[in-house]
Amino acid sequence: MTEPLSPTTNDLVRLLHEVDDRARRLFGRALAIREVDAGSCNGCELEITGLTSPVYDSERFGVHFVASPRHADLLLVTGPVTRNMAVPLVKTYEATPAPKLVVAVGDCARTCGVFKGGYGVAGSVDQFVPVDAFVDGCPPEPAAILRGILTAVGRR
Amino acid sequence: MRTLFALMLAGYALGAAAAVVIPRGRGGRGLVAAGAVMGGGAGFALALQVLLTGAPFVLEAPAMLSIADGLLFRIDRLGALFLGLVGFLAVPCGLYGAAYSEGYEGRASLRFLGSMLNLFLLTMSLVPCAGNVLTFLLMWEGMSLTSYFLVLTETDEPETVLAGGWYLAMTHAGLVFALAAFLLMATGSASTTFGDLRAAAPALSPSARNAVFLLALFGFGSKAGIMPLHVWLPRAHPAAPSHVSALMSGVMIKLGVYGLLRVGLDLLGGGPAWWGALLIGLGALSAVIGVLYALMEHDLKRLLAYHSVENIGIIFIGIGAGLMFQTFGLPALATLGMVAGLYHTINHACFKGLLFLGAGSVAHALGTRNMEEMGGLIKRMPRTALFFLVGACAISALPPLNGFASEWLVFQALLGGSAIPQLEVAVVMPIAVAMLALASGLAAACFVKAFGITFLAIPRSALAEQAHEAPRSMQAGMAMLAMACVVLGLLPFAVVPILGSTLAGMGGVTPAAIELTRGLPLQVPGASGQMSPPLLALGLVVLLTLVPLGLRLLGAERRGRVGDTWGCGRIGQTPRMEYTATAFAEPLRRVFAELYRPTRDLSIDFHPASKYFVQSIEYRSEIHPWIERLLYDWPIRGIRRVAVRVRRLQAGSLHLYLFYLTLAFLVLLTMARWSR
Amino acid sequence: MVAIIGFALGVSQAALALLLAPGLVGLVRWLKARLQNRRGAPAWQPYWQLAKLFRKEVVVSSNASWLFRAAPFIVFTSTVAVALLVPLLLVPLPFDGVGDLLVVVYLLLLGTFFLSLAALDPGSAFGGMGASREMTVAALAEPTVALAIFALALSAGSTNLGQIVARTMSGPAAVSPGHLLAFLALFIVTLAETGRLPIDNPATHLELTMIHEAMVLEYSGRYLALIEWAAGLKLLIFFSLLSNLFMPWGVATGITASAITLAVASLLVKLVVLAAVVAVLETRIAKLRLFRVPELLSVSFVLALLAVTSSFLLR
Fold first, then answer.
1. I need a surface site. Which of B97, B369, B466, C155 has the fewest CB within 10 A?
2. Do C36 and A26 lie within an 8 Å CB cutoff?
3. What is the mean predicted confidence (pLDDT) over B258-269?
4. pLDDT, position B666
5. How far apart are the first and last CA of chain B?
6. Residues B508-527: pLDDT tens digits?
């Protein structure tokens, strides 16, 4: 039932800097992800839930989701960062042990999307935590999100 | 041996005298402690001598009291074991008391505290030395009275007086039963020395023997704290000063076990199977219910007191199993059961004493016994925390400490129950196994709560934030007991033969049956189980050192940093966000709700403007020991009614009292004339 | 000389268990994935996860004390000590005189005790909740374990693991209804102690549904790796106890190459079978509400009691 990952999803991923060699070696086969909803409309969350479904099956790449940031290697951040979620996002980032990566999912995470300028919005994700890759889309497909995660750890 | 005995008496007397003469100040308190330590040390040495050589120590003083054969002290091996226990615990508790009693200066009479402590130790030491009924009961009563006064030390607390009242009533009721048992036994014997009682016991009719056993069970069982006679324990032990609680819980209740062994096994020489079954049943019940109530407590010392009930239950299970095996003529298994019970007696004295001293240090530093106000003490009182942890591991029966060794023996004794030919009797054993295992698991849960809430995480109140480590002498007392816990756990093969030898010649236990150990491992007759605590400990220590080495070899990352506790990214952390003791025990409270029957009061105040807005909610839930209420309410009410009527005799008129005196005198004269 | 060979065999048997443990956990996960129509990670995924965890830094809460840092080592050590004592490949066991079945049970309790304390240390409510639930389940599973031990010891005449295995191997007459009942009872206890459905969900992210996971929420890096490895080892130990105490055929009785190879093969087969059973169970049933778990444990208690009764009656 699982679909192989299509190569066209590469275009939707923006990598901000070269993948660290250490991260590539460390996270190449096993990656733990902690998802942080920094004020999103939950559209991206619905797509992210699809990642663990039988169709997209992120587990076959060694990627699994964890409950605590202390167990995590990569933070998957969605949503424009609202004022209430600014501090919790930073605290989640601080609670994660090094080496760590951040992948920001959705247009809201990069540009605040349709919520730009709203009174409750504090800024985009890269204004609060160092981001390694953005995945464009509103919301992006699970395949694109998966491609973004894999690109961030240097797997093609 | 005579010199050691005299030294013991002198030590305690010196301590008591010092307390009366110079109660206050470091010198005075130090002298009181020195007296207790000297007396305890001498008593322990004397006991060791009797245990190792086997020669009993006899001291007759018939001239001291001319009724009922006067005072007779005869220390045989069984008595020496308990004498040694008193002496062994007297040393750390005395040492501890030197600094601890400073907290009572100005609040309570130190004169009373010091003198009563030494007299308490003295009478407790002399109970196992008694060789006849008069000496025994005299020392028993002395022990009860001195401990009563010690319980009443903190008279500024209202519940202390109530606790003292309960204690006095229960202990005197027990005395009456014990006295009745002895008198019944003495009907057919020449004198009231234990030797004569033993000789006359076979001549007693079976119903008389059963009656003696039941009376002794009531009398000594109430002192031991078996259910349902345990009601004074959770009241009296928390009220007393901590080193006294340690002594009461560690040694005094064991003297109840001693009394039962002396009467049931030694003097009566064992009996029908239902004696053993009754002891096992009561023991199993006490073990489970004791620990269940301990789980619900958030007063640290009351929690420990309920655990004493649980452990006395375990001791009774061992002894009951031993008695039952003896009835069916299985001497090896009988010895095993008895030894298991006796070993647990010693071990419990060590770890319960340690735990009470630890709880006392915490209460001394904080000024409260309420666990809900503690927390974070492991950083402020690191050594106390370490000692308390050792005690907690020991009482939860974790290998390789002493609690595990004795519980292992009790389990093995019960597992031998398959050898009993009668099925209806043998079925008691697996039920006891299940209840013992349940009690043991619940005890571990309770001590995770006790240690975790008291010492770990963040302080829950300002009292806990300002806590400081206990003074050196208190630490020394705790360290001694912690060391004993470890040693007794690692070297059971050294202790067990001594315990077996105490039972020699009693009730048909032949010395040949005491072949419990062979070399290093602890082996059980019939090869029904084998374990080696020292090898186990060695293995654990070796592995513990190998693991970090292995990590280094694997090239594991060694960096680390300190961060906030993960709380889903919330802004701050206050002590109110931590788990509380009540919350920790809540799942078990729900599981056993039928037993606890908690009461619930919920009152909600609504905002005057609208009933959709709540102003305040008050929730109160309490657990009352309903068994107590069922069994003790109606006798207490009956006694009160009678007492009110009797009070009419106390009209207050001096002439009436003079009349009473004259009347009593006339009656006595008539009786004396008649009995001539 | 024989003693040295025995010692070496005992140590290598435990080392084998330590090596296989992550693979067993991975196998259960892979089987579950396949049953869920997914491809899933390969069965050796946990090895990569452990390797990665060992290379990550450790973040420790400022409220935590030395207990928090020491607990993973204590848990790991006690579990490895148990692996040295259980019959995996060889009977009589090399370390037979050191500990019997009761020692095994209480050593596992030692690990649970310290893990629960470490969960309380950072002062988070998650840890407190996990510790409270874990100790509740452990305490309620104790009577069943004790009775199952009683049933086994009754028929074998000893609590020594080697002797129990030898007795069961001695012939078909040794297998009785008591055995089957005790097996079922211990199976339920295995699910409880190793944190598998229906008592605990090892893959849950919801803190309110966690028992074991909630206790390790604060752990990271090498500490987490040690705890996860110990949990996998505990699963392997329970599986091998279940299989070798009740179906010990294949266990080597002598130190010959063929016997040992057969023992390794039979152990692997038994582990795979049990892993499949657990995987199917985890896919089919839902997690029980916490306050329904005591009901399940009392079912296992009744089974154990029946096992003891039948052992008594059929003696």
1. B466
2. no
3. 87
4. 94
5. 44
6. 555 544 555 544 566 666 55
* % residues pLDDT > 90 (chain C): 63
Q: Does C55 reach chain A within 8 Å, measured CB to CB?
A: yes
Read off the pLDDT of each residue in B242-257 and give the average, rounded to a whole number.
Answer: 94
Instruction: Tell me the pLDDT tens digit for each residue of B454-498.
Output: 999 899 999 898 989 989 889 999 999 999 999 999 888 788 888
A92 touches chain B (CB under 8 A): yes
Q: How far is CA B497 from the centre of its chain?
A: 24
Helices (H), C247-291: 257-284
Crossing angle of helices B300-327 and B273-295, in 10° steps, is 160
CA distances from C245 to C88, C140, C147, C174, C260 (A): 10, 22, 15, 12, 18
Q: Reply yes or no: is the peptide bond before residue B228 cis, omega within 30 of 0.
A: yes
Query: Helix (H) and strand (E) counts for chain C?
Result: 11, 1
Are B276 and B321 contacting, i.e. CB atoms less than 8 angstroms apart?
yes
pLDDT band per the 50, 70, 90 thresholds, residue B64: low
CA angle B49, B55, B61 (to 5 degrees): 95
Enumerate the β-bridge partners of residue B605. Answer: B616
pTM: 0.94
Average pLDDT (A125-145) is: 91
Determine whether B483 is exposed, middle or buried from the number of CB atoms within 10 Å of its CB (0-12, 13-18, 19+): middle
Both ends of chain C: CA-CA distance in Å? 40
| Spatial separation of the C-alpha atoms in residues B499 and B78, rounded to whole Å | 8
Does the CB of C210 have a partner CB in chain A at under 8 Å? yes
What is the model's pLDDT at position B65? Answer: 67
Nearest-neighbour CA in chain B from C273: distance (Å) = 30
- H helices present in B510-651, as ranges: 533-554, 581-591, 593-596, 626-647
Contact criterion met (CB < 8 Å) for C58 and A97: yes
Phi, psi (deg, nearest 5) at residue B658: -60, -40
Please count the residues of chain A. Answer: 156
Classify residue B430 as left (phi > 0), alpha (psi -120 to 50) or beta: alpha
Least confident piece of the model among A58-67, B549-558, C10-19: B549-558
Gyration radius of chain B over CA positions: 26
Reduced to 3 states, what is the DSSP secondary structure of residue A74?
strand
For B578, the closest of C78, C95, C125 (CB atoms) is C125
pLDDT of residue B230 exceeding 70, the answer is yes
The verdict on C30 touching A (C-beta cutoff 8 Å) is no
Give per-residue pLDDT as tens, C195-225. 998 999 888 888 888 899 899 999 999 999 9
Q: What is the pLDDT of residue B507?
A: 62
CA atoms within 13 A on the CB side of B220: 25
Nearest-angstrom CA–CA distance, B336 and B325: 9
To the nearest 10 degrees (0 to 180), the angle between helices B25-53 and B110-126 is 0
The answer to whether B359 and B392 are in contact (CB under 8 A) is no
d(CA C296, CA C293): 5
Block residue for tokens 């002797």: C163
pLDDT number for residue C272 = 96
Pairing of strands A31-37, A81-82: unpaired
Within 8 A by CB and 6+ apart from B612, the residues are none
ipTM of this predicted complex? Answer: 0.95
- C203 Cβ contact list (under 8 Å, min separation 6): none
**Cα dihedral angle (C238, C242, C244, C249), rounded to 10 degrees?**
-140
Residue C115: alpha-carbon gap to chain centroid: 15
The answer to whether residue A83 neighbours chain B at the CB level (below 8 Å) is: no
Residue with tokens 């933070």, as numbered in its chain: A75
Shortest CA distance to C301 belongs to which of B434, B160, B132? B434
Helix (H) / strand (E) containing C297: helix C293-313
Name the residue in chain B with its Cα closest to that of A35: B568
